[in-house]
Amino acid sequence: PSVQAARVDQPVIVDGRLDDVAWNAAEPATGFIQREPDEMQPATEKTEFRVVYTASVLYVGVKSYDSNPAAIVAKEMERDALLYPDDSVMVILVTFGDHRNGYAFETNPNGARFDALITDEGRDINSEWDGVWRAACRRTPDGWVAEFAIPFSTLRYDPELDTWGINVRRRIPHKNEEVNWSPLGRDVGDFRDLRRYAVYRISLAGELRGMTDHEGRALHVDDALVCRAAPLSLRQPIDLVGARQHRIAELLDASRAFRRIQSAPTAGVECRPRRRDRVLHLTNAGIRCGGDRPL
Q1: How far is 264 from 43, CA to CA, in rounded Å?
Q2: Dihedral (C-alpha) 107, 53, 244, 281: value to the nearest 10 degrees?
Q3: What three-state secondary structure class fits 120?
């Protein structure tokens, strides 16, 4: 499935109401499909979401209807708590065209937040990552509402892509129901025993179209300049302004351009801070960047 993102000029007030005029610019995406309990059948409760964005922030608004709102479950309130037992909505964003890596943002009716970096189609989930984003939720007489505000500066993405990947998962515990906008069967998610994370299968996400005219932390690497990678050893430790070393590995894995050099046993990576930017320098790896490339 595909959904069109709408570019708006005024920022959305994130209050869990979905009553900003900006939301009228986007058509709702519907048609959620069950994974549990009745595989590949239409959801028993209606769910719809819209996507709008300004130059600096991506907004996702989700309306979760429920014919029995008194049965909605919302216990967790802490950051990065396991929200799967609660009523919850998770948004998956795939910002590169590799169909392997992405971001997860989840909330429940209490506005608790969970986020993670997804690598290699969910084979590696980094839930220690804490991105900068907001969520506001509110219960209504006919269900509950969730608003997400995700700054583009929180994301790494391919600036040449105008179509990202997206999926939205909703959990309805009092019905033991899981529904997804882009359908996922029970056979999905069996990389390990955590079958409940089938939504991390990036390649099965739908399309988010119209992603142009925005600012953020695009990873600018010209594919034409990535020629070949010569094996060499890591000459010095990575220091990325206090970030952990595994963050570099995730960035390398997430980029289509950097995938070209994965066949090399190691690549020389040297990082140093410049002003407030975090700058990645690739040295002696058959790559000419023509200067510093801010991440």
Answers
A1: 46
A2: 160
A3: helix
What b/e string do you get for 255-287 counting C-beta neighbours within 10 Å, with b at 16 or more? bbbbbbbeeeeebbbbbeeeeeebbbebeebbb
What pTM was computed for the model?
0.74
Q: Is the pLDDT of residue 214 over 70?
A: yes
Q: Tell me what pLDDT residue 216 has.
A: 59
Whole-angstrom Cα distance, residue 25 to residue 30?
Answer: 16
Q: Are 2 and 166 in contact (CB under 8 A)?
A: no
Give the CA distances from residue 18 to residues 70, 172, 229, in Å, rounded to whole numbers and listed in that order: 21, 21, 49
3-state SS, residue 294? strand
E strand or H helix that includes residue 262: none
Gap between the Cα atoms of 107 and 82, Å rounded: 10
Burial 99-116 (b: 16+ CB within 10 A, else e): ebbbbbbbbbbbbbbbbb
Q: Is the pLDDT of residue 234 over 70?
A: no
Contact 183, 244 (CB under 8 A): no
Residue 4 has a pLDDT of 97
The model's pLDDT over 241-291, given as tens digits with 9 standing for 90+, comes to 333 434 444 444 444 433 433 333 333 333 333 333 333 433 333 333 334
Beta bridge partners of 269: 282
For the chain, give the mean pLDDT.
Answer: 78
User: Coil, strand, or helix at residue 47?
Assistant: strand
What digits encode the pLDDT tens for the residues 16-63?
999 999 999 999 999 999 999 999 999 999 999 999 999 999 999 999
- Asked whether the beta carbons of 282 and 229 are under 8 A apart, the reply is no
